[in-house]
Amino acid sequence: MLKFVFGVVLCFVACASAVDKDIAEDARLTTPELIKKYGYPAETHHVETDDGYILEVHRIARPGAQPIYLQHGNLDSSGTWVLMGPNLGLAYYLWESGYDIWMGNNRGNRYSRKHKTLSDSSSSFWDFSWHEIALYDLTATIDYILNNTGFKKTHYIGHSQGTTTFFVMGSERPKYNDKILSMQALAPVASFIDIKSPYILYIAWNLETVDYWTTLFGVNEFSANDAVKTESMLLLCKDNSLYQAACANDLFLIGGFDPAQLNYTMLPVINGHSPAGASVKQMLHFGQMARYKNFCQYNYGTLNFWKYGSLVPPCYDLKKVTAPVILHHATNDWLAQPYDVNKLYDNLGNPKGKYLVPYLAFNHFDFIWGIDSRELVHNKIISVLHQMEAEDKA
Known about the structure:
The protein is of the alpha/beta class. The chain has helices at 2-17, 21-28, 31-37, 90-96, 130-149, 161-172, 198-205, 207-216, 227-236, 244-255, 267-273, 280-292, 304-308, 338-347, 366-369, 373-393, and strands at residues 42-48, 53-60, 67-71, 100-103, 114-115, 154-159, 180-186, 221-224, 276-279, 325-329, 351-356. It has a single domain (22-393), classed as Rossmann fold, CATH 3.40.50.1820. α8 (207-216) runs antiparallel to α12 (280-292). One of its GO terms (molecular function) is hydrolase activity, acting on ester bonds. Keywords: Glycoprotein, Hydrolase, Lipid degradation, Lipid metabolism, Signal. InterPro entries: AB_hydrolase_1 (IPR000073), AB_hydrolase_fold (IPR029058), Lipase_euk (IPR025483).
C-alpha cells in the first residue's frame, strides 16, 4: 500500500513538472496572487452579510474611477474573471479601460467559507440557495463598494448565476435598483423552459433522490475543489494527455459544445479555479427551476405553507427589476437558450438591450473564457458601459 501511495505521489510530481510552468503556477495561485503576478494592483476585502457570512471580495484597484462589480456564476469564483490572463480576462480589460474593478465571491465558495458563529462543517452553514446569496451577499457587497469608493452607483456585470441572483435582488430588494448604473447579464439565467444541459436536467428529474441521499449522508457542499483535485487536473487535463478531451467534455456537457473557442492548454488553470464550491441547495433550486419551468423561491414541498403561508413558493416579479439591464446571449448556450432569454427580456422592468453573439457555436462559458470573447463580447460590454454612462449624465 505504501509503495502504491508513493508511486502516485511520484507520478503527480513528474507529470505536473511536464506541464508548462506558468500553467501549473496559474492553476495553483489564488485570485489576488494571479492579479499580482501579472502586475496589477490587487486588494482583498472582507464583507460581512446581515446573516453573518464573511465574504472575500477581490479588487483590481483604480481609486477614484467608476466602480464595476463583477459577480461569478455557480460553482465559480472571482478567479473566473482573471484566470485566462491579461490578454483575455475581462477584469483586466475593464481595468485597462479605466474602471475600478471589484469581484465578488458568494458564500460557500473557496474564498467565502467563514461565518460569525457557524462552522463550514455544519449543515446550518450550508442552508442557503441563490435566493439568500441575492438577498444578503449581493446587497452587502454593493453597499461595501459604494461606501468605500464614495460613488452613488456601480456598474454590475454578472455571468450565469451572477445574473440569476441580480434578478432576485432586484425583485426582492427593489431599492437596490437605484444603486445600479447599468447591469450587463452574460448568459442570463432566470428560467429553464428550454434548457438543454444534461447536468441540470438530471437533477431536475431526480430531485427527490438527490435530496434524500445528500441529506442521509450529510452532504451539504457540491463539488468543491482542493489541492488534490488541482494536482489531478494538472495531470489529466494538460496538453498531450489522453484525458484532456474528457476535461473539455465536462464543460461542453454543461454549457454547449464549442471546441473552437476553448483554449485546451488552459484547461488545467480553469480546473484549478473551478469548481470553487456551492451548496447542494443551490443545485436543487436550479433543478426545481428546470422541473417546474418557473422562476420562484425554493420549494420545500409539504413545508411550503409553514415557510411561505401558501402551498407553493412565491415567484419573483421581474417587473420590479428597474435597473437598466442589457442581456448578452448565445444560440448554443445550453443553460440560457434564446427562448428563455427573450422571455426574460419581455418580463424585465427596464430592459435596455439584448445582444445575440454573432457566432452560432458560442456557448455558456465562452463569454468569459472563449478565445474570441474579447472581439465577440467584451468590446460590446465596453461600448455599453460608455453608452449607459452618457445616458445617466444626460
